[in-house]
Records
---
Amino acid sequence: MSDYQDGRMGKVFLLGAGPGDPDLLTIKARNYLKISDVVVYDRLVSPDILELCPRLSQRVYVGKETGHHSLPQGEINRLLAQHALAGSTVARLKGGDPFVFGRGGEEALFLAKRGIPFEVVPGVTSAVAAPACAGIPLTHRGIASGFHVVTGHDALSSRKVEWEILSQENETLVVLMGVHSLGEIARVLMSHGRQADTPVAVIEWGTTPKQRVVTSTLSRIETKVMELGVAAPAVIVIGDVVRLRESLRWFPLESLE
Ligand SMILES: C[S@@+](CC[C@H](N)C(=O)[O-])C[C@H]1O[C@@H](n2cnc3c(N)ncnc32)[C@H](O)[C@@H]1O
């Protein structure tokens, strides 16, 4: 019997909360959420999902705005460990999937090093859910044979990004946290050979009633996004698959383009 099962220690559940639509929370995440004593959650976790927490559970907001960290990552790690060591069942709710640009790996490592039981429940990442709800398949026979997901947050400062690979015509590029650096990303891609007329979609608040999709080309998207005041959270999709949206647009709640 484990320390968690015999009640000597709590456990941390790193739960993917999905991209925004509460119906995209997995059944497993929902079940764990319902038995939690403490819920530690991020900014993009839907209020409808928080409604599922037990009435008496303690809720701790540790959300991060772009450029502002309301609680440093080290303190979040310590908070999770502290509650688990005190015997609590902790739900660590993270937007999308915990291991996709969510620092879930760092939290899991912190717990693993201390022998604190944890479990990871994958979530539906916005990197695929937002394009799906915008009517954009990330791969499509004859158009795109694969896709890459990068963050705009540090893509431009990281020497590790292989722009030649990301600029290939038959691949789709998905950028998270990229609205502020969109113009720069577009210019770098064009300088590595991606065509200026490559279609681009920016999906704001994908999967939710606030979903808005703006489309243009690599050379024009920055201006259009600025004119329309598109802001985070948004997923950027770059590649010929964006054209399929003209035929596959289906999302009933979508607002202006
Ligand atoms: C810190 S990252 C977390 C990503 C998350 N772990 C995931 O798998 O979706 C936050 C970024 O995810 C994207 N994002 C999350 N939810 C979104 C949504 N509903 N619509 C559009 N973009 C979203 C945005 O690019 C946002 O800046």
Note: The pocket of S-adenosylmethionine is lined by residues 19-20, 44, 94-97, 100-102, 125-127, 130, 176-177, 203, 205-208, 232-235 (CB under 6 Å).
---
Amino acid sequence: MRIYNIIKSTTVEGPGKRFCIWVQGCSKHCKSCFAKETWDFDGGIELSVEEIFAQIKEQKGIEGVTFLGGEPFEQVQELAQLSKLVKSIGLSIVCFTGYTIDELKNKNDKVINKFIGYIDLLIDGGFEIENLDYSRPWVGSSNQRFIYLTDRYNDKEVSKYKNKIEIHLDKNGGFEINGMGNFKELRDNFCLQLTKNNVK
Ligand code: SF4
């Protein structure tokens, strides 16, 4: 599978603590996309389904796995295989997609339908700047819909969560930010703070 990034434990990409996988490659090219670096199908790194599943199994205390993009439905064969393994150890699956569920179902594709069958919560629709809305958890625009495909999650459960951003620091002074909110403002302020504190 082509992978853009993995964060092994985060609380801002779906319910509870989650192992998050940003897949590499997206042909949708939505005009407000803020993750254009994930479009190139030759970018990122190659990891097998087995390698990723081994990492997931090592991670203690997670509630589930979240797939983001790039576009997860561009690597549906591998994600269906991975999802089957993930579900076999009792973890939940949340998947973001730039497609609507109707677009996906209208493809009448056996593997797409199989993958959908493993997803507990599908968050559909690409980010749209003209519909900017940070009032719900994990999403940035009002067109994005929470579609509950199993009874694992529901609106009541989801409404307990707020939209948040996490900052992960590494021991070399690097950092990465994930979640949903005003990333530019945060990145600018955070860099300023690092400079003031003379952190390299
Ligand atoms: S589907 Fe997602 S990753 Fe792809 S262009 Fe649209 S917003 Fe960007």
Note: The beta strands are 2-10, 18-23, 45-46, 64-68, 92-97, 121-124, 145-148, 165-169, 175-179.
